[in-house]
Amino acid sequence: MSTYVATSRSLKDDAVADKFFISLIDERPEMARNERNMMNNMLELGCSGISWKRIKNTHTSRISKYKGYVSQKERTMLAGKASGRVSASSTQLLASVVNFASWEKLQKHSLVNGNLPRERTVVPDSRSHILSYTMALHPPLCNRIFKMWSTWDMQVDSDGLRTCYFAWCPFEDMEVGMYSGETFSQLGSFISRSNLNVNNLTDESGSVGNSYKSLKNDVEAKAASLSESAKNIINGNEVSARSSGLYVFRELAPNVTFVTLINLIDLKGHLPALLMDLKLTETLKSLDNMRKRHSRDTEKVDSEVREHMKKVFARDRQDDQILSETDDMWERCYEMRKFQAQPKSDRQRVSSYSPVRLLSSIGNRKEYEPWRAMDSPCALTKMERRKNLTLSNGNNLVTECRASCICDCSAEDAMAYLWDACSDTRLKGGRESSLKAHLDKSLALYVDQHDRVFEPAGGAGGGRNDVVAVLKKLPWPLKKIEFVFSRTWRKIGDGYGIAVESVDNRVNADYGTVMKHKVRGFMQALILIEPTQSGTASLESCNLKLFQVLNVGRRHNYIRLVDSNKHIFESFVKQNAIKVRKTFEKDKIIDQLGRDQIKCVIADDQTGCTEEEEDFLDNIHDQLDITGSMAFDTLPTPDMHVNARILLRGTYAIIRATTVLEATIEDASAYEFAPSSRGKLKYFIEQHGKDRNIVYINPHSYIQMKRFEIPLYKQREFVQRYVLKKSEDEAGSKNIEIGIDSVQHNLFPETNQYIRSIGTSLFIFEKLPPLFGIPQTKMSYVAKMTWGGLVPGRFVRVKAQEGLAWILSMRKTFDKKKTLDALERKQFIEKLHLNSWGHATSSSTAAYTDEEKKDIEVGQEFFRIFQNNPTKKRVASSSASVINEIAFRKNDASGWGLSETKIRAKKEDILAFLWNVDANCCKHVADIERLVLERHNAHHQIAYLCRAAAVKGYSPRYSVSRMVWAEVADGSLVVVHHPCGHSKEEEQQNDDGRKRVDFSSICKVKETLDPSICKLTYIYHSVGDKQLSMMTHMKQMMELVYDVKSYFLQLRVASDLEDDDGRMLGEALSHASDSTVDSCFRSYRALQEMDDRFPWFKPMIVAVLNNSLHMAPAIDSKLVFLSEDDGHVIGSGLALPIAINLTNDAAVEEWLARYPALKEFGRGGDGEKWFIPMIEVIAARLLSSAAWGMTTRVLIGGGVSLLDFASDLYMIKLYREDPDNFVFSYLMIGMVGLCCLLQLGIVTAQNWKAPLHIKIREMLYVICFVKPAVDAYRVATGNVQSRHSMASPVLEMMAVRCVELFAESLPSACLATYVVINGESSFAALASILISALSAGYTCASISYDLDTNPDQRLKAPTFYGFLHDDAYKRSICFVCMVMLSALLLIAKSLTTGLLMSVSLKAFLLENAVEFSLFFLYKVYNMDVVHPFRTEGIFMTVLFSLCIPIGTKVISDYTGLVFFRHPNFLGGFWSINMVLTFIGMIFATILYSEGSVGGVAGGGVDADTDTAADFENTRVLRITTVITSCLSLWILTFLIFLKSINESHIKSFFNHETSKSYVQSFFNSPSDSTKIVVLSYNARVWKEIRPDVKSWIAVNWTQWNYERPLWFTSSFKDFDGDLVPESSDKFNIMKRKFEMQRSSMKITVQRIGRMTVDHGRRGGEGKIFPKGEERGEERGEIKGGGGEL
Question: Which ranges are annotated Basic and acidic residues under compositional bias (predicted)?
Fold first, then answer.
């Protein structure tokens, strides 16, 4: 027989290998004696007394890592230990460890150690394997070779859980053979000849190999054919190292394993300790990789562990070893249950269970404060505290606390959750900045007891005792508070108890780092878990009670500012009781069961009222006078479907409200009548409820006492009786009444502590006919509330509004408006198809009347009127995909508005949305009321709309309009609105001062080439209102287009979304807060789908929106392995790229590069292509709103410029005060003036076609020296190039910065250096040089950084752009290096210039003439004279070809600007220029030293010759030292810079590509969007390929006109006319449209001025038409064409 031996080549092969090994476990051979001995030795080694110490900065990891030292054979070996939970079975993990040379491990091995071997050989008929690998060390250190013998074992406990072991030791430590007939020496020779990666996999046919028996012969046969080079790799001169260790895989649940890894390594030789620690850490990372590979949902994993722990707790094994110390602790803590009810006589006994051994007692003054209630963050949780005055003194504040909570789970569930203190679920905390949130972000870890190294802590392994450390993090300046406490648990009857007590200061937690500013707190606590009856047989519940004594002391700074004990107790309750409650919460199920019971009572006719109850209900009717006609005021509600009115009379108020619920009458009444529902309890607490009690009378009546603790007022108390009555009239209509009235009851007597308030309410539920099969119930609510005491009317009104919150929650619970809207649209669309789109083909649809045709025609004319309006302008919209324009004149009484977008929906769906104006989906946030007053026919109706005023202080605006829709000739659908009157208009008038606004509008829905995409255009015209109110109302109405687009986006699935949809999702999310993110996810189907499919998606979005600036770790996991925690880490990783990048798209690109899984998610083959545009929109908002985002960029951009300018002004002042340097002040003024003049020239050229006021504004920015800050603001906020601008904001900013360098920073630095060389060096002059150098360095680095990180540039020219790494850390290094390179070069070059000027002006000119001559000769030689920038005319071409090369050459000489290596500037001459600059520095230094010593350069010293010579020698030496130091630092910095950038871009620093070849290379791209870049350059540069460009345009012209890509309009607006295909009449069309607009401009203005509105007060009489036309005159048939008449 033969065995198939192969090497894994993919992850799939690894999975097959693991599966094969697992299949052999049950048929495993017996362990040999030596295998058993080696396994036992490793187990003993793990339990030996090694002094373990946590590895630095691993305390926050889910994997605990330690290091220690072991002495063996007179040698110290480094030991490492790691332990943690992994979400996989023990056999899976054992198989992955046994597969030592898997494909995945080989890949990681090659990344770390290069192409060095890593092998595994299976020993036949045994459990042993031979492992070997080579560890690479940096030269001159030798590589280390490890040869190891390994074996494995498995045990199964009584619960069926497995524990697997995998041990290994050095190969040379084995003394006998591992299988019969083989000795150690024979086996060693056998292994030395094998150099194969041996893994038992499936053969080509898919069948499993034949086991181990014939493996030896196969290995020997293949080993004989090995090459000598392969043998030398193993048997070379590398150092043989030793490694031994052990894996223990102990299952906590069938698919959850606690893993312990112990590894001892001896690398031999004398190696640095830092290197040893590094290699040890790398070996321990295997557990991190294991956890990452098998990551699953943390909540699911923790629940699986708890299921096993429940079995352990239920057994309550008595054979566990219980120490006497824990018994004593249990007894002390168990006495704390007397907190629950303690008589006054027993107060002195408190000292017996107080932590007297930890806290010092003082005299007995007043022993206790009374119990004080605390605000509970959860409905079913009560919290109280009191101060223990006996044990409190100046340094201690002892507080006793107690809490109780009802949990919807069994006692075992709660016990398992609490005992597992460091589970992933429990360590999740808040991320806000408040004190309570900081306490929630506590760090919890088990204090390791290394004598139980292989046992998991926290009770997962069945233990009763453990030690836990909790570190509570407080905001600065408060210190951290540490609690280190011991825990033990006991079973008490059917329940459980946990005792907690702080340990001595001698027990410390090892965090792996020095935790500064922490204080040890002391605590005693008792947690009791008692099973209770939930009221439902199918559900379990328990009562959790927490008793706690706390002392955090007052020894640490500023702790007196806060009640620390109170907040810490709240955090403990949150981390324990409330988390248990929320984890097992079943509120909805319990409430539904309670309502079902009430429904059974109603169905069984158990609601028959007694005579006394009938009188009770009649009395309620009389009190409320529901048939009366009092003057009620409108009470505004956030839901327009709830109509509410209020009548205020002193201290009482009468409220009326009506609404319709999408529920049966039984469901609605049961929702209100349920006395103990969790929803009512939450509502009660939200209304400041303190206590309540219920007394049941019969199934349909009960009495309830409620107490409210209202801030600033005395507490109020209600005692009310509830009675439910079911009735049915003669017609069979069902009604249910619920009467509520205040009563007296002996169980609730009146007290002076509370003011007895009176409340009378009546709910009437009437059954309505179902709508589309959905039940309908009308609910009427009348209430009279008397709060008693002296309360203002405003308080009564506010409380009345709060009382409506319960009705609103009831509507939300039963809300099915979306379903009704969809069914109504479906019905409308079916009628459309049935009636052939509104034409008179059926008797059910009347033909269009002349009046309706008139309305349609007038509405279509709006398109032409608006198009020819000269005052129209673009305004901001709610979304970038929606175009909004308005047209109005100052002091004009009419206004026009246009809104337009494309919607991915069918036109009939959009028409149905627009037509059903009273549907819930059409509701706007400002709507007060919207309804249809009358429906004339299927295409004509009268609508009423009332909206709140957008301007504060204005009355609400309402309108009555006639709506008509039709299909016009071009196939599009139009819906027109015209003002009219109606008889029901007066009925809608209210007391809120509504004012009528008349408007006309038209909505046009037209299909595009893709039938699933429609273009929606909305034109709005309003007259007769104040201009401010009219404009704000107009903008509100124009949001209709955004609402339609948003609604249909909410209905679409993720796979159908496009880039624009992603941007719109980003806009919706960017305005969401932490509390509204959930609502956003529920509203959009695509987001909900992502949340269901990817558990990390929602935490990532929340973390992105939080935008907390910190260094997030990199995560290289694949998409399928991401967890919720990974999502949070990835989301918080976006803040840093936003902070260090100039644009949002560059920040997102860096973020995507840091987390490869996001690229797979957004750009993979099956990726969500809308994801990246969505994140870019969110990043843009964060960039502009974050305090460290746009503000920092503006301050730095303007601050650097202003600082440089301020230093120049100060130097001008000093020069003017010095007679010798007086002339230099004029030079400095000239430099500043030249800088302003050149910047004014740039601004003028940039805005040459802009209006005059824009030119003046831009010039003022330059004159006020704030132009750099303005440019930084524009780029940071994402401003695009306007139609008046010649270049983009980024290029304009770069040009302004370069001018500032050329005309101000560089000359001023050279002048200051010249003055220092030839005069006395003052501090001001040196500071000015340094400021100029740093300013120039920062400017140059910013230019290179911003342009290189631009995603568009990287996409177009990837060979040049992209030298910066995607890693933020390396980018920061590169940025600092670029600042240093420019600053150092400027200092050295300015010194060189000063030296040459000191020698003679001729020397300076000669040196520059030589360099410029070489530069232009280089340009001529490469035929690269014409600059590629696009210009008009030969003069501008020559000017640009001279000025730009000279300017860039000067800036590059003094700063070495990295970006100027671009082929369009210096190109390959950049590296030559650096060499020439260094040669010039050496030449200038030599020339100056010779001239100064020989008396050529005057030093200005009046002394004898020897003194002058010494002075000059000293000066030359100092200058030479400075220049040499700068050059040396420059070279060193440049080497670091080259090491930090992408290696593939190093050649771009020495590439001699010309601008002509660079420009023409764009045309070689396969993408049209990249090819089109050629047309943006000077035509003389690409004239060789002009015929190819022309043919390319001719071939694709028709397709571009059809597809209309984004670059088509902007890039083709000014190109040469001969490139346009001859068949194109584009220019003729544009010319004709321009002439038409010009000729009709005057007529259009007159028509707008003469438009009048006639709105009759009779239904259907309102019309719009110009003066001079008779009313009722025929205007022709319905036409299409968007208003083209």
Answer: 1656-1678
585, 600, 624 - which closes a domain: 585
* Cβ-based burial of 411 (10 A; exposed 0-12, middle 13-18, buried ≥19): buried
By the 10 Å C-beta count (0-12 exposed, 13-18 middle, 19+ buried), 1417 is classed as exposed
Structural domains in the chain (count): 7
> Which of 466, 455, 456 shows the shortest CA–CA distance to 488?
466
In a domain, 1545, yes or no: yes
| Residue 1344 neighbours by CB under 8 Å, 6+ apart | 1378, 1457, 1458, 1459
Question: Does the residue 1590 lie in any domain?
Answer: no
Any idea what the CATH number is for the domain that residue 209 is in? 3.30.530.20
Q: Are residues 721 and 630 in the same domain?
A: yes
- 1621 found inside a domain: no
Beta bridge partners of 940: 937, 964
Pair 1002, 1081 in one domain: no
For the record, the structure tokens of 1351 come out as: 């995603």
Does residue 402 come out as left (phi exceeding 0), alpha (psi in the -120 to 50 range) or beta?
Answer: beta
Of 1251, 1353, 1359, 1250, the C-alpha closest to 1294 is: 1353
Show the CA angle centred on residue 843, arms to residues 838 and 846, nearest 5°. 50
> Is 452 found in the same domain as 334?
yes
Chain centroid, CA 701 distance in Å: 51
pLDDT on residue 1614:
47
Lowest average pLDDT, out of 547-551, 589-593, 985-989, 1255-1259, goes to: 985-989
Q: Rounded to an integer, what distance in angstroms lies between the CA atom of residue 944 and that of residue 931?
A: 5
Q: Is residue 1337 part of a domain?
A: yes
* Domain end residue (candidates: 1309, 1327, 1344): 1344
Contacts of residue 537, Cβ cutoff 8 Å, sequence gap at least 6: none
Is residue 472 classed as helix, strand or coil in its secondary structure? strand
Q: Which domain holds residue 1238?
A: 1189-1344
Q: Alpha helix (H) ranges present in 1264-1322?
A: 1267-1276, 1289-1300, 1306-1318
Q: For residues 17 and 96, what is the distance between their CA atoms, to the nearest angstrom?
A: 9
Q: Are residues 476 and 614 in the same domain?
A: no
CA angle 1372, 1375, 1379 (to 5 degrees): 140
User: CA 292 to CA 86: how far, in whole Å?
Assistant: 8
DSSP 1304: I
Helix (H, G, I), strand (E, B) or coil at 176: coil
Q: How far is CA 1581 from the centre of its chain?
A: 45
How far, CA to CA in Å, does 843 sit from each of 851, 852, 934? 20, 18, 20
3-class DSSP state for residue 1195? helix
**What's phi and psi for 895, nearest 5 deg?**
-145, 155
Verify that 1233 and 1247 share a domain, yes or no. Answer: yes
CA distance 1348 to 1344: 6
Instruction: Say yes or no: 1109 and 983 in one domain.
Output: no
pLDDT digits (tens, 9 = 90+) for 211-226: 333 333 443 443 444 3
- The total number of residues written for the chain in this structure: 1685
Pick left, alpha or beta for residue 1433 (phi over 0 → left; psi -120 to 50 → alpha; otherwise beta).
Answer: left
Same domain, 1457 and 1541: yes
- In this predicted model, what pLDDT tens digit does every residue of 546-601 receive, in sequence order? 888 887 765 444 444 456 677 777 777 877 888 888 888 888 888 888 888 888 88
pLDDT at 820: 85
Instruction: Say yes or no: 1047 and 940 in one domain.
Output: yes
HEC sequence for 397-415: CCEEEEEEEEECCCHHHHH
Q: What are the strands, taking DSSP E only, across 622-732? A: 633-634, 643-649, 652-661, 689-698, 701-708, 716-728
Q: What is the pLDDT of residue 901?
A: 92
| pTM for this model (two decimals) | 0.67
Cα–Cα distance, 447 to 46 (Å, whole number) = 18
Cα distance between residue 794 and residue 481, in whole Å: 45
